[in-house]
Write a structure and sequence with these properties.
With 564 residues, this protein is α/β, with parallel strands linked by helices. It has helices at 20-23, 53-65, 99-129, 133-136, 152-167, 182-186, 207-219, 272-284, 333-337, 408-421, 440-449, 454-458, 536-551; strands at 41-49, 71-74, 90-91, 139-140, 145-148, 175-177, 196-199, 203-204, 228-231, 234-241, 296-302, 314-323, 341-351, 364-367, 372-376, 382-386, 426-428, 487-489, 491-502, 508-511, 526-530. Residues 461-483 are annotated as: Disordered.
């Protein structure tokens, strides 16, 4: 993707398509007392821009490491309204980059260390959700994951990649599956695939639920901790460096800069009286200096009538600002225009529940050289996403995640893929796409695509290639058998989300050089935790932990990659 392709504007929260995860999750509500007349200026130690998995994880870790820090999370939509609430529902550990290229760049030892970190990061987020499975709607797929090869060339490349992974010390992450074993593993007689890989451990996740739990626990603060505020439907519009040793001063309206709690008192788990009392205490503490010296002036404006920001806007003086917006990088045009961090759109659809005895395995699947993924959910729905490789530019440079912006050809491919690949398990519904959010254009495209074989789908001409695969940001059926009549798939909803892809496929975590920052001046004031290249569910939590250590002035964990 080039800068010239970055022409779409970011969709606001009222225009964005509605994902299945967000449709079935109550919006985030405040756990404290909202003041009728919030101040026009706040003081904070850290401002986190973005309330997805990265931003929420950072808030959680900062509360554990440095509870005295005043933290404000600013989110242009609602909590989890961006990519975190729009993904494919997978937590799939892996390098997320070709092993030969990684070895060429970092050496064999370097590649092995990166994979070691990946598995550590996966175990870290898995440890958080352990004991919180119900709150986070998390489980491991009973039958793990399967990568399925659609061609001999794909098989050759992927098996060579897997051999290098095993040689590096990870033989059990991906295990080759010969073609003759596929019917038993797929519970299908399909001949669409020439082999595959088995991945024993893959997480089935509702990422937005994890974010809610992270913020809930961050707000349930220890005694004596400073304030934490989450400002929804509030957009950061500018960041300015303060003069050396600058002070917060007085807001334009004459109000003294207030404590975080004066906009929203964090009274989670307390009654109204306790929250109000905490608000009084926070107000009295308003004149106290923050722990970090102020370096930046952050301007915030409301994005909707339900915003937590006053109509006239809000100014926050802070010591550190963290960009946790993944592909939504309009505050960092230098990263975007250089191609270091570009938005990439991905479309996802969900079916109505299958019969409980349907033979499709309770597993996650990756096909089409990583450009298609699908999984059977705990409620027997199937979530399928991908196919950005069938459109020009492979959706690189696209910010548009609106309902009207859904690409009809991608929609058609999503709805016809499973019946094409598994004709003994599924048929295409005559009404496919007429429920939920699919469009008339998508229905017409589906009819055109329905007769294509998998190889014909692979031959759909595209213009250019970004050389990036999607990545995986991502009970057994009984009784029907292979001879049962195939099920007519009914699609319930379709949406899109914006991924953040980096040049080297590794996230950007740490301090931003002044020349790349939004303020363009302050040293060691702006930080990044973004650019997860479709693979954030395994890495965001741990990357945020290590960024929290940096902000706390402590060394990062042993093994945290210098390249990240």
């Amino acid at each position: 993707g080039t800068a010239g392709q970055l022409t779409c504007t970011q969709a606001n929260s009222t225009m964005a398509s509605l994902s299945f995860w967000l449709k079935n999750l109550s919006p985030w509500h405040h756990h404290g007392t909202r003041h009728a007349s919030p101040p026009q200026e706040l003081q904070a130690d850290v401002v986190i821009c973005g309330a997805g998995i990265s931003g929420a994880s950072l808030a959680y870790h900062l509360r554990n490491l440095r509870p005295e820090l005043k933290v404000v999370v600013v989110e242009a939509r609602g909590v989890s309204g961006g990519a975190t609430g729009r993904n494919g529902g997978l937590m799939w550990p892996g390098l997320n980059a070709p092993w030969p290229e990684t070895i060429q760049k970092f050496g064999k030892d370097g590649a092995a260390k990166l994979m070691t970190y990946e598995m550590h990061a996966f175990q870290d987020i898995a440890a958080f959700v352990k004991g919180r499975e119900d709150a986070c709607a998390f489980s491991f797929f009973p039958e793990g994951g399967l990568t399925l090869f659609e061609s001999e060339e794909e098989a050759r490349v992927m098996l060579a990649d897997t051999a290098l992974q095993a040689e590096a010390g990870f033989p059990h992450v991906s295990i080759p599956v010969p073609a003759h074993e596929l019917p038993q593993r797929l519970h299908s007689s399909t001949t669409a695939f020439v082999g595959g890989l088995r991945h024993p451990v893959v997480g089935r996740v509702t990422a937005a639920r994890i974010v809610h739990e992270l913020l809930r626990e961050a707000l349930d603060r220890p005694a004596g901790a400073a304030d934490l505020a989450v400002l929804q439907h509030s957009a950061v519009t500018s960041i300015q460096a303060l003069p050396e040793g600058g002070q917060a001063g007085v807001a334009a309206g004459g109000q003294q800069g207030g404590a975080v709690g004066e906009v929203w008192t964090a009274g989670a788990g307390m009654g109204a009286g306790g929250a109000a009392a905490m608000g009084v205490a926070a107000a009295r503490a308003g004149a106290e200096r923050c722990t970090l010296p102020p370096k930046l002036r952050v301007s915030v404006m409301p994005t909707s009538d339900s915003s937590d920001t006053p109509a006239g806007g809000l100014t926050i003086m802070c010591g550190a600002f963290v960009h946790a917006t993944n592909g939504y990088n309009k505050l960092l045009p230098s990263l975007r225009d250089s191609g270091w961090l570009v938005p990439v759109r991905n479309q996802v659809a969900v079916t109505q529940p299958l019969p409980r005895d349907h033979p499709l395995p309770h597993a996650s699947f990756s096909t089409r050289d990583g450009y298609v993924y699908f999984s059977r959910r705990a409620d027997d729905r199937v979530v399928i996403g991908g196919f950005r490789d069938v459109v020009p530019h492979r959706e690189v440079g696209t910010y548009d995640d609106t309902l009207v912006g859904l690409d009809p050809h991608v929609s058609a491919c999503l709805r016809t893929y499973l019946p094409t690949a598994f004709p003994d398990l599924f048929t295409i519904s005559a009404a496919s796409g007429k429920s939920g959010s699919s469009s008339h254009a998508a229905d017409k495209a589906a009819k055109r695509v329905a007769g294509l074989s998998l190889h014909e789908l692979q031959a759909v001409p595209t213009k250019g290639s970004d050389h990036h695969h999607h990545g995986h940001s991502h009970g057994h059926g009984h009784g029907r058998g292979h001879g049962a009549a195939p099920v007519e798939l009914q699609y319930e909803l379709e949406w899109s989300g914006i991924l953040g892809f980096t040049k080297d496929r590794w996230p950007l975590v740490g301090v931003l050089p002044a020349e790349l920052s939004a303020s363009g001046g302050a040293q060691n004031a702006e930080y990044a935790c973004m650019g997860f290249t479709g693979h954030g569910m395994t890495r965001c939590f741990n990357c945020a932990k290590n960024l929290a250590l940096m902000l706390a002035g402590e060394p990062t964990e042993q093994g945290f990659p210098a390249t990240v």
